[in-house]
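for the writeup, i need someone to sanity check this before i put it in the appendix. the sequnce is what the collaborator sent (i think, or maybe the updated version? ugh). structure was predicted straight from it, no edits. if anything looks off just tell me and ill rerun, i have time this weekend
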Amino acid sequence: MASSTTHDHAQPSPAAPESGESRRDFLLYATSAVGAAGTVLALWPFVHSMNPAADTLALSSTEVDLGPIAEGQSITVTWRGKPVFVRHRTADEIKAAQGVDVKALREPQADKDRVKKPEWLIMVGVCTHLGCIPLGQKPAEPKGEFGGWFCPCHGSHYDTSGRIRKGPAPANLPVPEYTFLSDTLVRIG
């Protein structure tokens, strides 16, 4: 008798490969999503550690009491390691700053665009030429040809709005971001 072996092969249904592929795709996507979430969770402490410390954030702004500053007086405060000039301008200084032909300036900027209140001028006191600190904050210091500030290192002259008027400095003294919290209190930064 001839032995014949019959193998019963089950024929896969036409939907089987598709359901096998979709299950495999699902497992691949689910595993990838869990892996990505795990990576983010593992990296979060490292990324968070790169944020500035609370004491550094506190130094990113400074509050200045304007009450004791008499008209015509200037003070220097430190903000982010830089000197900031705060000047209580006189009516004559405001008039001189507003009377300048802006088109004639190296860096055209109207006085009204540099101040929030005309009597208060707040700017970073670092010469835009080579980073020196201009003179003119104290009554006995030279104020330059335009009554503002004078950088003796290379002869830059700034007017009563802190705009470059003469000398090698390429730009006006920068105005930092600041907000008046009241009539006598300002926050710089």
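The mean pLDDT is 87. The helical segments are 16-49, 54-59, 91-98.
thx in advance!!
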